Every structure is written in C-alpha cells, then in structure tokens.
C-alpha cells in the first residue's frame, strides 16, 4: 500500500499518512491492538486492568477513547512498559521492524519528539493516548496541528525549508527500497522546493500554522489520507 501511495498521491501525503501508520504499528507491536476483526471486542470483554481511577477518568474526559478502550490501552502499555514510559530507543526499534528496507531512526526521533510533549525524554501513557486520540479520532484541524508540530522541529512556531527537508529526508531514508520507482538522491530537495513554495503563500521563507493548515485543507490527497485510519480501535 505504501508504495502505491508514494507513487500516486505525492510525498506530502506519504508524510502525513506515515505519522498515523507508524503510530498504529506502535500500538500493534506493543500488543495494544490486533487487526483481526473480533479481537478488540474480545479484549474489551476480558480486560481486567490495574489503573489509577482518577487518571483514567481524566483521560476519558480529555480524549476520544471510551473508558473500556483506555483500560485495554493501559493494560497493554503497562505490560510492555513496566516503567510506565517509552523511550526513544523503543520507537527506533519498532520502526526498524516496520521498515526493514530502510533506516527509520531519524524519522522515529522526530516522531518521538512530537509525542514527548513535555520534552522530558520519555513518552508516558498520558502522552501516548493524548497523541493517539488526535491522530485516530481528532478533527482535521487537530490532526493538522499535530502534523505541524512534527514538522516544526525546533518548536518556534514556524516551519522552515530546512526543517521540512529534514523530515522528508527522514521519510525517504525510512522507506528505503520500498519506494517505487527508485528515487534519485536529489528527490527530497526537489519535492520540498515544490511543496514549500505552495505552502509559503506570502513568500517570507517560513510556513506558519495557518499557511500549513490552509494548504493541507485544500489538498484533496492529504484530506483523503487523514481519513484512512479513523476508528481502528
């Protein structure tokens, strides 16, 4: 599927799809979801979770997950991450399995930083489900805000051409031999030049959140990609 998306929908769509797709893989490898049809219902019926009731009630109010869904997520998270946090090396290990033909370490680093909202070097269960709630069930505006934060590497409120190029190079590196047709070395820069010019409407050399959202909302391919993985759990 990813090679088809790469070929027909354009690099900018791939970048946003991979945010969601990689997050689903993180859930799957942590044992939090299974893609068989009946597994989620079975998990909900059988879940016996140790959790902090106050925290769970707060997360239910703050996210779009039900209490039972949060119980399933929390049980799996605690089973796989007894310390209660996921570190960057875990992200890198997961994406190296997801993209064995490429080097996913840089993209995993950027995605980890997007989940690590308080920038303390680890992703807690709260960080995790808050991000997933946006990616899987958030509004278009919320998803695009999250994506902007990913591209805004230094968190100064703007996306520069260099930041976009860093993300795009990371995507190319992660895809590796999965890309079709085989792409030339200068391809990431060429794609960024085209897409950055499209986003930077006032030509001031940076992309604001408003420019980013406006451009994405007017791109049919991006809007389609944002709907691919809704309500999977």
Automatic annotation (TrEMBL):
Q: Where is the EF-hand domain?
A: 103-138, 139-174, 187-222
Q: Which keywords, in A-to-Z order, does the entry hold?
A: Calcium, Cell membrane, Cytoplasm, Ion channel, Ion transport, Membrane, Metal-binding, Peroxisome, Phosphoprotein, Potassium, Potassium channel, Potassium transport, Repeat, Transport, Voltage-gated channel
Under Pfam families, the record lists:
EF-hand_7, EF-hand_8
According to the record, the segments passing through the membrane are none
This protein's membrane topology, according to the annotation, is: Peripheral membrane protein
One Gene Ontology BP term is: regulation of potassium ion transmembrane transport
Query: What subcellular compartments does it reside in?
Result: Cell membrane; Cytoplasm; Peroxisome
**Principal localisation:** membrane
> Calcium: present as a keyword of the record?
yes
Q: Which residues form the signal peptide?
A: none
Regions annotated as coiled coil: none
Origin: domain of life: Eukaryota
Which GO terms label this protein's molecular function in UniProt? calcium ion binding; potassium channel activity; potassium channel regulator activity
Q: Which PROSITE patterns match?
A: EF_HAND_1 (PS00018), EF_HAND_2 (PS50222)
- Record InterPro entries: EF-hand-dom_pair, EF_Hand_1_Ca_BS, EF_hand_dom, Recoverin
Q: Which GO terms describe its cellular component?
A: peroxisome; voltage-gated potassium channel complex
UniProt lists the family membership as follows: Belongs to the recoverin family.
Q: What is this protein called?
A: Kv channel-interacting protein 4
